[in-house]
């Protein structure tokens, strides 16, 4: 009997592992209509100030639409900072193996938004305006927009890189911390089988909902910063 239960638990854990990751395979790259040139005039805004503005407008968008605010996470911030420096250095946007890397750091649900705006004149933008512009850029695409409103995400890390030539690079890493596999192990080790199965099925449903949040659902309308409800088309 123990062997059969052990095999069943192993199968359940394999299923849990398969549900751990939100793999958001989208990216956005926007080129400003201004030709790429050296930014002149005002000194570049502070990257930390732009980072704070991105967080503020991301959370404002969530709040307007009835979702809990995201909390900044030190580990995700460090990850996003390294990622944005890498993106700016290589000169293009790429998600790479972000989902697997974040799962290794115990962010069992995770997603990522990437953006680059080129050809900016620093005389035209404050840190607050840049942060808002980046978030508004994400609002134009369903994958990025739904990442920002996914209720299963609890934490966020933000990376910002500005260049003297008028480029702003941004990375948003979303996540929820935890180790569901370890939790399932504990349930089957300490609880009666039926109770452990009940908890497992509830967790499985939660993980599936988190993973499929922006994949198999109608494109909803959202309230944007103008206070109006916008209906989006695919």
TrEMBL record:
Residue ranges of the SCP domain? 55-174
- Taxonomic superkingdom: Bacteria
| Pfam short name (any one) | CAP
Which SUPFAM superfamilies did the record assign? PR-1-like (SSF55797)
What InterPro entries has UniProt attached to this entry?
Answer: CAP_dom, CAP_sf
Question: What's the protein here called?
Answer: CAP domain-containing protein
What's the source species' lineage?
A: Bacteria, Bacillati, Bacillota, Bacilli, Lactobacillales
């Amino acid at each position: 009997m123990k062997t059969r239960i052990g095999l069943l638990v192993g199968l359940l854990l394999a299923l849990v592992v398969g549900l751990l990751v939100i793999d958001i395979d989208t990216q956005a790259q926007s080129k400003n209509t201004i030709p790429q040139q050296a930014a002149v005039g005002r000194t570049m805004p502070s990257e930390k100030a732009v980072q704070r503005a991105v967080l503020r407008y991301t959370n404002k968008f969530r709040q307007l639409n009835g979702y809990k605010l995201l909390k900044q996470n030190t580990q995700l911030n460090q990850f996003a900072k390294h990622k944005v420096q890498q993106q700016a250095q290589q000169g293009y946007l790429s998600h790479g193996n972000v989902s697997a890397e974040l799962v290794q750091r115990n962010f069992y649900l995770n997603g990522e938004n990437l953006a680059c705006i080129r050809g900016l004149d620093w005389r035209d933008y404050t840190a607050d305006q840049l942060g808002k512009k980046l978030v508004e850029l994400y609002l134009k695409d369903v994958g990025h927009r739904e990442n920002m409103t996914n209720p299963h995400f609890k934490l966020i890390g933000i990376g910002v890189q500005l260049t003297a030539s008028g480029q702003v690079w941004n990375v948003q890493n979303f996540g929820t911390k935890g180790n569901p596999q370890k939790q399932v192990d504990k349930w089957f080790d300490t609880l009666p089988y039926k109770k452990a199965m009940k908890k497992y099925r509830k967790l499985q449903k939660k993980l599936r909902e988190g993973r499929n949040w922006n994949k198999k659902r109608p494109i909803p309308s959202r309230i944007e910063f103008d206070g109006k409800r916008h209906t989006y088309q695919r």
